[in-house]
Amino acid sequence: MTDFNYLEIDDVIHSRIRTAIMAVLISVDEAEFTFIREKINATDGNLSVHLKKLEEHKYISVTKKFIERKPVTRYKITKTGRNAFEDYIKKLESIIRSNSKK
Amino acid sequence: MTDFNYLEIDDVIHSRIRTAIMAVLISVDEAEFTFIREKINATDGNLSVHLKKLEEHKYISVTKKFIERKPVTRYKITKTGRNAFEDYIKKLESIIRSNSKK
DNA sequence: TAAAGTACTTTGAAAATTAAAGTAAATTTG
DNA sequence: CAAATTTACTTTAATTTTCAAAGTACTTTA
């Protein structure tokens, strides 16, 4: 078992809802607000706040359009976001693996 | 990609410091306060609060003794805690895997 | 015996999380 | 066709969580 600093875990990702958002976005090219909302069962307000946080950290990019007279907001994972998510998983795995093996 | 509710992720575990604590405790029979503190690089106050939270949820058990006139607090993962941690990992893996495959 | 260290716990401020309420537009209903 | 409802979000504000500084109760060292 090796030492590690828990602060190395990316806390922009390590929140239940943001982990879920990132997991959805890593698998799709683009996703609409409503699509994510339904995938992860989030409330509008909550989702909005956390998407904004991910955007502020440049983990996702956002485009807003009107389609058939309706507002549509699309989210896309950035390269930064993809790297961060991959690192996050590796870090978590290493913490779990380095500790859970006898 | 399947739907999931992010609220299914155990939030007693899904905190950086508590994930780290649980990862340490799952690998050892028992661990002292100071051992955990050094393993994960936590401050005393913060560690104390989160160990208490894990204890309140019966994920860990605590024994306090004096050894060579000094207080020694030992922590042990419970069956409940072990199950919760294993479920937590499975849930996270499924969220990540179900979404990250193209 | 005074000062410093150890092993924690308590506390309170700051940050994060959450859902209710709000906005602005479109659509449906009576 | 005006009012009510719905849609797609955003803002807000109350609650919860996180964190480290300060506190407690000793023990050890000088």
User: Could you tell me the strand content of chain A as a percent range?
Assistant: 15-25%
* Strand order in space, largest sheet of chain A: 1-3-2
Largest interface: A-B, 33 and 33 residues
Measured on Cα atoms, how large is the radius of gyration of chain A?
16 Å
Which whole number gives the mean pLDDT of chain A?
Answer: 90
Which homologous superfamily in CATH is the superfamily of chain A?
Winged helix-like DNA-binding domain superfamily/Winged helix DNA-binding domain
CATH class of chain A: Mainly Alpha
Treating each run of at least 4 consecutive H or I residues as one helix, how many helices of chain A? 4
User: What pattern of helices and strands is seen along the backbone of chain A?
Assistant: HEHHEEH
- Main sheet of chain A? 3 strands, antiparallel
Could you please describe the fold and organization of this structure?
The structure is a homodimer of 102-residue chains. Chain A has 102 residues and is α+β, with helices and mostly antiparallel strands. Chain A has one domain: Arc Repressor Mutant, subunit A (Orthogonal Bundle), CATH 1.10.10. Chain A is built from four helices and three strands. Chain A has helices spanning 16-27, 33-40, 44-56, 79-100; strands at residues 31-32, 60-67, 70-77. In chain A, strands 1-3-2 form a three-stranded antiparallel β-sheet. The first copy, chain A, is elongated. The first copy, chain A, binds a DNA duplex (30 and 30 nucleotides) through helix 2, helix 3 and strand 3.
